[in-house]
Write a structure and sequence with these properties.
The structure holds 2 protein chains of 2 kinds. Chain A is mostly helical. Chain A contains 8 helices and no strands. The mean pLDDT of chain A is about 85. In chain B, strands 1, 2, 3, 4, 5, 6, 7, 8 and 9 form a 9-stranded mixed sheet that branches. The chains are: A mainly alpha, B mainly beta.
Chain lengths: ~550, ~150
């Protein structure tokens, strides 16, 4: 109520002040307009001043003064006064030209402008030219006749000029009267418009005042509602609902809907916190149970760790032994490689020996071939011998037959034939023996050649197998060498394994300590869980203060 | 007395040297077309063509072995008033032996050429009668020549 009266009063006061000031402004404008209007007091004052100056001063654009001056000059004889008149005439001419220039710039090209700037101007200029070029020189020469003639011309110019000026005055007076009438009409119109504008503005101002008052009332109602809801929320009551009609599109409406959302969110949060505190309670209980279980687990883990540590120690010892064994094996492998190398060297010697043997076999085969050829030759010789023996036998037989036929005289011859036949027989027998021996020799040679061929073949096979065995020995050496390298790698691995096992042992020691510390930590965690449970109980009590539903 | 010893198959035989003219080495003979059995060919000898009889063919029904010891023995056969030369081809004609004593053998009608034995030992040669030895066709040929 207090807010409402305050806000509304202020608004009414402000609107009233505005209306009053506006009315004052309107009255002042009215009065100013009235005072400065054409034919108003100020206007009349200014016009009066101008009229006075116009009445007193000779008009520069109406050349009546130069005309009168020219007439004065005609009868003047005193040169000093004449010079003064001429100077004055010159000054008047300058003044006329200045003003004529002004009017040329100012007036529009209409009837008035033509009269002023063309008709009157040309005649005036012609007048001044006649005066300065002909009249004054004639006066100064004392040529009166000429001066009077020129003055006649000048009179005509002046007359034409005066007619044009009369026209100018007539048109100006007409125009002024018309302008005054127009100004009067304008002011009357403006007065009416001003009055209507004032009425309209006052109406709008009052409408604004009424609208502002009404809105201020709604706004203050809503704000009051918002403050009440906030107070109840501060008191822990979250059940207050904002009516849907109060939530509008304006700022207060948006504020109320925001408050509504806020209370709803707070309600949800509190509800969730309540549920969460219940869950937290059970979780804390579970934590306590779990941590107790973990404690026992950690204790058993400590025991297992001890066992593992023992096992690792055994592994370390075993791997050290294995390392020693591997080193022994490696030494044996190195010896094997050396032996294989020696074997390869031996094989290389054997290889050369075999080659020599093959060469020897070839030589023998060649010699045997030579022997065979010789045996063939022997056979030829033996055949010849046997032929000779055969012919000798035949000869002896025929000789014996002839000796028999010769009777007593052939007896000695018969004995000879008999002896020859016996020798031939022995020769034949010997020949047979030789033939037999040669045949045997040939057989032996053939057999020998075959044997040697086979031997050479075997030697050749031996050489190839020696080469193959040499290659195999090379492979064995290579493999044993790689074996040795692998053994080295295995050795390194074993060494690092042994080292690793020792490190694992140490780590196990650390792990046991860790388990002990973990057990301690778990005990601490247990007590912390207890504290958590207490805290959750307190939280629950605190949250119970919030009223969530009506 | 001397005898020329030779061999026909497994048995040794001999010829009296008085019947033998000369012993010749085996040599190519002039062939005789449509020759009677046992005649191998004709041998040019001392200006005549002497028929040669293969004794192996006559006695053993086979040709003599073509060896160097197989030789042609030229024999002289009585033919009426004068003699006729015939070549006999025999194996191992290599030896001549002294004939000291002869043993009479069995003279069978089918083998009239086998006469006395020159010893009682089993390998002792048996003397052959060349005039009985000639094939019948040759004998008849000779007789016809004589008649002419």
């Amino acid at each position: 109520m207090h807010h409402e009266s305050q806000l509304a009063t202020r608004l009414i006061f402000m609107v009233s002040a505005f209306a009053a000031l506006f009315l004052l402004f309107g009255l002042l404008s009215w009065r100013t307009l009235d005072r400065v209007r054409v034919k108003g007091p100020i206007y009349e004052e200014i016009i009066l001043g101008k009229d006075l100056i116009a009445d007193v001063l000779p008009p520069p654009e109406y050349i009546i003064e130069p005309y009168l001056l020219a007439r004065q000059i005609k009868d003047e004889t005193d040169p000093t006064r004449l010079a003064t008149f001429i100077a004055r005439g010159e000054a008047l001419r300058l003044e006329y030209e200045n003003r004529a220039e002004f009017w040329k710039r100012t007036l529009k090209k209409d009837e008035l402008g033509d009269l002023m700037n063309i008709a009157s101007y040309r005649n005036a200029i012609e007048f001044f030219r006649l005066r300065d070029e002909q009249y004054i020189p004639a006066i100064q020469r004392g040529d009166r006749e000429r001066a009077v003639a020129v003055l006649g011309l000048m009179d005509k110019r002046y007359e034409a000029h005066r007619l044009a000026i009369d026209g100018v005055v007539r048109i100006s007076v007409q125009r002024n009267a018309a302008a005054e009438l127009r100004a009067d009409r304008e002011i009357e119109n403006q007065r009416q418009v001003l009055f209507l504008l004032a009425l309209g503005i006052l109406a709008i101002v009052f409408a604004i005042a009424w609208y502002a008052h009404r809105n201020a009332k709604i706004l203050s109602d809503r704000l009051r509602m918002a403050s009440e809801i906030a107070s109840s929320v501060a008191g822990g009551d979250l059940s207050t609902e904002v009516p849907a009609s109060a939530m509008g599109d304006d700022e207060a409406g948006r504020l109320l809907s925001a408050i509504q959302q806020m209370t709803a969110s707070l309600r949800a949060v509190v509800t969730r916190v309540k549920q969460a505190s219940i869950e937290l309670m059970s979780t804390a209980t579970e934590y306590a149970a779990t941590s107790r279980q973990q404690e026992t687990t950690v204790q058993s883990f400590g025991a297992s760790t001890n066992q593992i540590a023992a096992a690792v120690r055994e592994i370390t010892a075993t791997s050290s032994e294995l390392l020693a064994t591997m080193e022994g094996v490696n030494a044996v492998a190195s010896q094997t490689a050396n032996l294989a190398e020696q074997g390869q060297d031996g094989l290389r010697n054997l290889d050369s020996t075999m080659e020599r043997m093959a060469q020897a076999a070839n030589t023998m085969a060649a010699r045997l071939a030579a022997i065979r050829e010789e045996a063939a030759e022997i056979t030829g010789v033996v055949t010849t011998i046997s032929k000779v023996a055969d012919q000798t036998n035949l000869l002896s037989i025929n000789a014996a037959i002839e000796a028999e036929k010769a009777g007593e005289q052939g007896l000695g011859f018969l004995v000879l034939a008999r002896e020859i036949r016996r020798l031939a027989d022995q020769t034949a027998v010997a020949t047979l023996d030789i033939e037999h021996m040669v045949k045997q020799m040939q057989n032996a040679v053939s057999a020998g050649v075959m044997e040697i061929d086979r031997f050479a073949e075997e030697v050749r096979a031996g050489v190839t197998s020696v080469v193959r065995v040499g290659g195999q020995f090379g492979q064995i050496i290579g493999q044993v060498r790689t074996l040795s390298e692998r053994f080295d790698a295995v050795n390194d691995g074993m060494r690092s394994q042994s080292l690793g096992a020792r490190q694992i042992g140490e780590a196990m020691g650390g792990l046991i300590d860790g388990a002990r510390q973990t057990s301690q930590s778990l005990r601490e965690f247990n007590s912390a869980t207890e504290s958590l449970r207490d805290a959750v109980v307190t939280l629950k009590q605190e949250i119970a203060q919030f009223k969530v539903s009506g | 007395m001397l005898a020329l010893a030779f061999r026909l198959g497994n048995s040794r035989y001999a010829l009296r040297t008085r019947d033998v003219v000369e012993v010749l080495p085996r040599r190519p003979l002039r062939e005789l077309p449509a020759a009677p059995a046992g005649i191998v060919g004709l041998l040019p000898y001392r200006g005549t063509l002497t028929p040669v009889v293969d004794l192996c063919r006559v006695l053993l029904d086979r040709d003599c072995a073509p060896r160097r010891s197989t030789r042609i023995v030229i024999v002289e056969l009585p033919d009426g008033d004068h003699t006729r030369l015939v070549g006999l081809l025999a194996e191992q004609v290599l030896d001549f032996i002294d004939v000291t004593a002869t043993l009479p053998g069995l003279r069978l009608p089918a083998t009239p050429w086998l006469t006395e034995h020159l010893g009682d030992a089993p390998e002792s040669p048996q003397l052959l009668e060349p005039s009985e030895l000639l094939p019948e066709a040759l004998q008849q040929l000779f007789e016809r020549e004589a008649e002419a």
